[in-house]
Amino acid sequence: MSASSSRTSRRIDSSRRPTGSRPLSTGTIAVADGRTFSCFSVGSIAGTYEEIYVPRIFIPWARLLLDRAALRPGEAVLDIATGPGTVARIAAEQVGPRGRVVGADFSEAMIAIAKGKPGLTSAAPVEYIVSPAAPLTVEDDTFDVVTCQQGLQFFPDRAAAVREMYRALKPGGRVVAAVWREIALQPSFAALDAALRESLPADHAEPYGAPFRWPSAEALKVGFTDQGFTGVSITELRHPLTYEGGIAQAIATLAASPVASTIAALDAETATRLRSAAARHLAPLVEDGQVRTQMVSNLVTATKPDRS
Fold first, then answer.
1. For residue 150, is it left (φ>0), alpha (ψ between -120 and 50) or beta?
2. Could you tell me if residue 233 is inside a domain?
3. Is 99 a member of any domain?
4. N or C: which end of the chain has fewer CB within 10 A?
5. Number of domains forming the structure of the chain
């Protein structure tokens, strides 16, 4: 999943600021270990995503996703919405040097981060390409496995994206994709969503929930079945989420969310009000100075029929 705000099908117009707003030049909050988090800046959405989200959310969930993919040595893998390459890198280790991994993302900033990571030993080389989910710039019938971690819900044309997954797979190939359940089941995100709705006009707060708006597990199953996949299965998975930097670190994730540009445009008074509301809503999740919660996702697995 690439968390750039431009991934949402509804883009945020940063010129639509609340009355009296101005770009916010402050907003760093210190945490217990002396580090600071830039809570109200979009200078590096991709960087904030990489620093906070990747180790706490996307690496653990990538391992869960790839457990279901059951990759074998020498297989070819396409990771769609690869972001900074989290799933792609783990997949490269699992398929080994004889395998092939391609990571595709529309965000040049995310691909730059992925390409800048150190090489892996005893792993397949990873090729990163800048490409939307539909159309994908890959050949037909090429990959044994297609993966997509928390990207499908962002694509403007979901049916076209699933169709492209089907096209890219070899006959008999398999797809594994993860899609978050509704925001009410993601306590830290629900808390921040409540704070945003309390502090901002509804149309400014509304995009924050975009990652959690896939209609239902049944709709997910139908979405793959309709494009020709067989053996479509949906599994609900849960995994802990801890922000060891506490409330400040949880608030900092707003800088890598679909409302990042809106947050950066707030005046000081509104920003202060939002921080206060966020701290209040997050407080019930705090244990020993850390925000401790969980996330819940649907995982879809499916197969492209073998021509034989």
1. left
2. yes
3. yes
4. C
5. 1
DSSP letter, residue 209: G
pLDDT tens figures, 40-89:
333 467 778 889 999 999 999 999 999 999 999 999 999 999 999 999 99
8, 158 contact by CB (below 8 A) = no
In a domain, 17, yes or no: no
Task: CATH number of the domain at 70, please.
Answer: 3.40.50.150
57, burial (CB in 10 Å: exposed 0-12, middle 13-18, buried 19+): buried
Q: The domain containing residue 227 runs over which residues?
A: 5-9+25-302
* Alpha-carbon span 118 to 236, nearest angstrom: 33
Q: Are strands 76-80 and 100-105 parallel, antiparallel or unpaired?
A: parallel
**Residue 276 resides in a domain:** yes
Query: pLDDT tens, 1-24?
Result: 544 333 333 222 333 333 333 222
